[in-house]
Amino acid sequence: MEAKKTSTRNSTRDPAARVILIFGSNRGDRAANIDRAIFFMQAIGTEEKRSALYESDPWGFTADTSFYNRVVVYRTSLAPAAVLRHCLATEQRLGRVRVATDRYTSRPIDIDILFYDSLVLHLPDLVIPHPRIAQRRFVLLPLAEILPSLLHPTHHKTIFALLKECPDTGNVSALLA
Questions:
Q1: Predicted model pTM
Q2: Where are the alpha helices (DSSP H) in the chain?
């Protein structure tokens, strides 16, 4: 697959990119797993904001335990591939074992890059924005909480509009602090 990269980011104004990650866990102490992952991901830059912690049904497979999810916005000077390396290293550090045969499985931690500024990137191991954002209510709900007017660079709709149109009917609810 040929790499394709486009961006409307003006790097002369702000050298730090806004990267938006989602953290998920459905094994072990889910909230602690996410908190530890967020702490370890501070290595990529400064945290700007975070959503509430959400509980959601598993997506794409059946599991006995629901997921906890949280969206976090960071400022980073790292390139997207370097952010991905940090995500994968953090997952491994927290006990995630990737199995090539099972796309969706229970896991102690999952970290996905949702957006990197308005960059559109298609590489064999990294697609930005995340290709399934518009189909996942567990992603859109926490995103809409903190960035409802964020414009998706390929759908050309706000996060709030994508949430209203989302076909996912799975249970997603914010947890009380």
A1: 0.89
A2: 30-40, 80-93, 137-146, 159-165
